[in-house]
Fold:
Amino acid sequence: MKILFAGPSLSGTEFVPLCSGEDVLLSAHELTCRGPARCGDITHAVDQGFREIGLVDGRFEDVAAVWHKEILYALSEGATIYGAASMGALRAAECYPFGMIGIGEVFERYAFGGLEDDAAVAQVHAPAEFGYIAFSEAMVTIDATLERAKAAGTITLEELLYVRAAANSIFFKERTWQRIFDNASLEIVDVAERLKPHVCNIKRHDATLLVETLTGQRPAEEMNQHGNYFSSWTLNETSQWLKLKI
Structure:
């Protein structure tokens, strides 16, 4: 049994529920799809019998986020759990030494590229009934876009740093490309026209890789490049964990 937790990173696709609290069952992929995961959702999925779990998006502001302990619990029960793009990339960067499989560029940046700010993947978005459409841009998307523009020779390193600083100064809920272009245009000529061809939704890209892996379209071994640092460990059932488990 396979399950995917996703929202804004895959908005507009068949993998995202359009009603809060309800599952989408994709029989062609033998996959259950739920919205962004919150604390307890991974544990509940394991207890329901799911043994392949894809974590893309998660809730974090109005409720407690997915616990690392839940992921360790899933792994201890023999489940395979993938993480990418957003909350999934964060938890994979923290839990891959125990066996969680991180997928994509965002995961790589958190795990090995020096990215530390959890808010770099944060976005504000609509509820399920409106398809989890994102209203803001994540900093990982800004960074990926700027790096591609720099590689193409469209902007200089100095301009890249200026635009990045302008974007990072905007609160994540208000960070849109238009706000960024308006701020950067004070110093950089034709910044919007120069950057738009290179806009890269890296979260969507990574989430798609995870879906392809979860549905068997891409070999799981191809994604699991880092292995386990701790191949033998025992889940410590602390009192706080038991409260969540119950």
Notes: Strands lie at 2-5, 24-26, 31-34, 52-55, 80-84, 101-103. Residues 94 and 111 are 7 Å apart (CA to CA). The first strand starts at residue 2 and ends at 5. Residues 139-151 form the longest helix (13 residues).
